[in-house]
Amino acid sequence: MKQIMLNKDDVICREGEIGSCMYCVRKGSVAVFSHYGTKQARKLAELKEGDFFGEMELIENEPRSATVVAMVDGTLLDEITESTFLDYFEQDPVKVFMILQQLSQRLRKTTKDYLEVCHAICDVTDLPENAPMDPELQARLLAIQNEYMMFNMSGLRFY
Amino acid sequence: MDIRIFHKGEVVFHQGDESHTMFEIQSGQIGIYANYRTPKEKQLAVFEQGETFGEMGMIENLPRSATAVALADNTEVEEINAAEFSDYFEEKPVQVFLLVKQLSQRLRETTRNYQEACCTVSETVTAEQKGEERSGGLKKRLKFFADVYRGFVNGEKAD
User: Do B8 and B39 have their domain in common?
Assistant: First the structure.
């Protein structure tokens, strides 16, 4: 199994690139960024020991949906490729359970956020088109629009 | 890992039940229902021999989100809890990887739906700010997401 050691601010993978491995944080921590290195850069999440990332790119062959950067010196990651995937999990089945849990949690959070947006949309469609919107609904819609503008809307949610 | 056998029409678990186990169908057929035996009942899925269901219960211990019912006599299922998961994985790694892949796919699709819903809100806000009428395409998308929310309120899953 391949492990990589990183220093603070080392880039592990870049938004938009085709990825071919997933990672597990063994020591230290990493930060997940949208638009890293630009004025619109925004930290989406911090991942610590035991957290997986990049599984979507490995399993689905999607381009990396964010840039991931080591947060501290001595950050250690397991690097898992398509060919080492089976061995990696067979050696330690507990990790499979952990990745299932993490995926499941992310799915639940994303579903919740999605339904909130659908709820706002439902409230909009309940009104006749040119009817004035109440300030609360307007505020909800604006908040959603802001989120949309800020994210790189091209892939996986990490948190 | 327990084996359980059900007659046609017998309930394996009810929506709202506590859950700690997943199931693999050895033979027969299982139907998954929202609001079972109510006027709002809706069949969400049918699972066959070799397929698994109820994984979220084992992974996250959340209340069951739907009711599972045997659709055929002598429907036989294997019940697996978290402690038995490693054994299950050793016996059937492919089945487990399929589960990882399915969760990953669901996360990707939900993320994409979420983004499209946000985009739809953004377009709606912009149209309103400009005093423009909503295009036919925008109205269609608004209706689509509003229906997702209404479906959810009626107990249908959104992911």
Answer: yes
Percent of chain A residues topping a pLDDT of 70: 94
A114 with B108: Cβ contact below 8 A: no
Partnered with residue B21 across adjacent β-strands are B81
- CA B38 to each of CA B34, B54, B59, B155, B156: distance values in angstroms, whole numbers, following the listed order: 9, 21, 28, 11, 14
Say yes or no: B9 and B39 in one domain.
yes
Please enumerate in sequence order all residues whose Cβ is within 8 A of that of A96, keeping only pairs 6 or more positions apart, or say none. Answer: A89, B85, B89, B96, B100
- How far from the centroid of its chain's Cα atoms is residue A72's Cα? 20
B18: number of Cβ within 10 Å: 10
Token code pair at residue A118: 């659908």
DSSP labels, A7-68: -TT-EEE-TTSBP-EEEEEEESEEEEEESTTSTT-EEEEEEETT-EE-HHHHHH-PBPSSEE
Asked if A110 has any chain B CB less than 8 Å from its own CB, the reply is yes
Query: A with B: how many residue pairs have Cβ under 8 Å apart?
Result: 145
Tally of structural domains, chain B: 2
Taking only the tens place, the pLDDT of each residue in A75-105 is 999 999 988 888 888 888 888 888 899 989 8
What single letter denotes the amino acid at residue A39? K
Two tokens at B157?
């899953």
pLDDT tens digit string along B8-20? 999 999 999 999 9
Tokens of B49: 């021999």
